[in-house]
Design brief:
With 177 residues, this protein is an alpha+beta fold. The chain has a single domain (7-175), classed as Gyrase A, domain 2, CATH 3.30.1360.200. Helices cover 21% and strands 27% of the residues. Strands 1-10-6-5 form a 4-stranded antiparallel beta sheet. Strands 2, 7, 8 and 9 form a 4-stranded antiparallel beta sheet that branches. A two-stranded antiparallel ribbon has the order 3-4. A hairpin with a 6-residue loop joins strand 5 (78-87) and strand 6 (94-100). The longest helix has 21 residues, at 102-122. It is globular, with a radius of gyration of 15 Å.
């Protein structure tokens, strides 16, 4: 099961509407990103409630992460016109949905397959890092027992937000509004 806010979302349409928002990327966290530190291309910290490799939660400051490999999904793999805010019907927790293009779905399948198989080999869950701009906004676990071959054919992803304001801001950043 993919945890920490990365859930499958229904594809609301596919294609590029010409909008240019911030860069979007999905990485295999353990294989592509370095440990938290003072320098690096990516950042994570407040207002995020958790950051990869940071013991103190919520994170007491912003941490930086070096990038050691290319992302499996990039901005070309999402349909910006479908980015929208939503909330969980049972808990009211805010989230952002992002539809994947066919290429994005293939990249997501590859990265989750790699994370699941590596996690099964290591007997520990591996994660994917979801990045907007230079910020790690989510890093869900890929459950190798539930998804031993990753998550094929995902039409989209759902990113948990820390608040309604955070969800609105992520939508704005991804849509380029």
């Amino acid at each position: 099961m993919v945890l920490a806010g990365l859930l499958l979302a229904a594809c609301l349409g596919c294609g590029d509407d010409g909008r240019t928002g911030e860069e979007f990327a999905v990485y295999h966290l353990e294989a592509a990103l370095g440990p938290p530190g003072e320098t690096g291309k990516l950042r994570c910290g407040p207002e995020r409630t958790a950051c990869p490799g940071v013991v103190a939660q919520p994170p007491p400051r912003t941490f930086r992460y070096a990038v050691h490999a290319a992302p499996a999904v990039t901005s070309d793999g999402i349909d910006r016109s479908t980015v929208q805010r939503g909330s969980d019907s049972q808990t009211g927790a805010p989230f952002v949905t992002v539809a994947l293009t066919p290429e994005g779905s293939e990249g997501f399948a590859r990265v989750t397959r790699t994370a699941a198989r590596t996690g099964a080999r290591d007997q520990g869950w591996h994660h994917v890092a979801v990045v907007v701009g230079d910020e790690i906004v989510a890093f869900p676990e890929v459950d190798f027992d539930a998804y031993p071959d990753g998550i094929p054919d995902a039409p989209g992803i759902q990113i948990a937000a820390t608040s309604d304001a955070d969800a609105r801001e992520l939508v704005r950043r991804l849509r380029g509004e």
